[in-house]
Design brief:
Strand order of the largest sheet: 2-9-8-7-6-3-4-5
CATH architecture of the largest domain: 3-Layer(aba) Sandwich
Strand content: 15-25%
Largest sheet: 8 strands, mixed
Shape: globular
CATH superfamily of the largest domain: Type I PLP-dependent aspartate aminotransferase-like (Major domain)
Number of strands: 14
CATH class of the largest domain: Alpha Beta
Radius of gyration: 21 Å
Helix content: 40-55%
Distance between the termini: 49 Å
Oligomer: single chain
Number of domains: 2
Bound molecules: pyridoxal-5'-phosphate
Length: about 400
Amino acid sequence: MTDNLQQQFKNNDTKFDFDKEINRKNSYSKKWDKYQGKDIIPFWIADSDFETAPAILEALHQRVDQGVFGYTEQGSTGVREAIISHLSYHYDWPIKSEWIVPLSSLVNGLTFSSLLAGNEGDEIIVPEIIYPPFNFVVANTKRKRIRIPMRLEAERWSLDLDALEAAITSNTKMVLFCNPHNPGGTVYTEQELLNLQRICKKHDLLICSDEIHCDLILDEDKKHHPFGNLNKDAANRSITLMAASKTYNVAGLSFGFAIIPNEEIRKKFAKDVLEKAPEVNLLGQVATEAAFKHGESWRLQQIDYLRDNHDYLLREINAIPGLKMFPLEATYLAWIDVSVLALDNAESFFENAGIGISAGVYFGDKNFIRLNFACRRSLLEEAIKRIKKAVSEL
Ligand SMILES: Cc1ncc(COP(=O)(O)O)c(C=O)c1O
């Protein structure tokens, strides 16, 4: 997007209120229901507490008011057009409508990608640390997981490409990749992606690039590069997974999509989706279309709010003895080193403090916790108070 257009969106007169308190208890919220009846504030699962963009609410209201909820098209013309213009506008990625495979869940997208990796027993490379389903989809599809450590250098996590290449055998068929990375918040540079693509080309590996967090870049100096848009070879060997769900807080509406330029790969993937996955949700398509067509000024204001939350958390967490957080380039998921506290069970320690976090052990490192800061600032302030107290009493 040109700076000029960004500025126009920022100058939009409507101010959205991210401090607004919304009671999510007893509203079918997985995040809040986990601690029903307890004085524990949830900062675990990756959805935000923000009311979604008014343009999305309006589109949903209109569709609900029609009152008929029969079977829906799997990727209506409207949502396909919105995806095409979103990817062209933000990432200069000229995709074709037929490359889009609608998905009710990106975790299913990881599963169907994994099924494309050779046969049972073949190897898939998975970074560690990683969003936990990356591991279980490999097991569920009876492939063998090859873990490649992420490196922490200059306060930034990245995939160790030397270790990755060294681990490749004749049975290795795929890399499951996450960009921006969850957890860790890394936005890979174009050069890093090209280096990965060259390795994939040399060893003829497929790559599934999960880019669900790509519209949540916090670092102003960073830009997201879709893997499938790097060059022709990358397009030919990649499955890129995306959704409006994280950015616009519509994950409960079950709509995402894969972009697969290679026809042969796409046909196999789409056949599995058709035969094995639940169909996509009607309202998820309506929400995604509205988000991508009319949600940009809301998204930009949300990014500003998240940046402030991030900076606040970074300052406060690093002032607590025993805790260490590194700046994130993207996502609203802080990855915090608590190793100095030597906790037996990080989850219960923080729950006893009144804070519901995700324990790092599920992501591959028990020395960390993950804290979702996509919430109103006052909740974060309360979290910091509770964490400070619990740590000082250890
Ligand atoms: C990297 C990544 N992929 C996929 C998902 C889940 O996607 P879905 O809800 O569409 O299955 C998440 C949710 O946190 C995620 O962080």
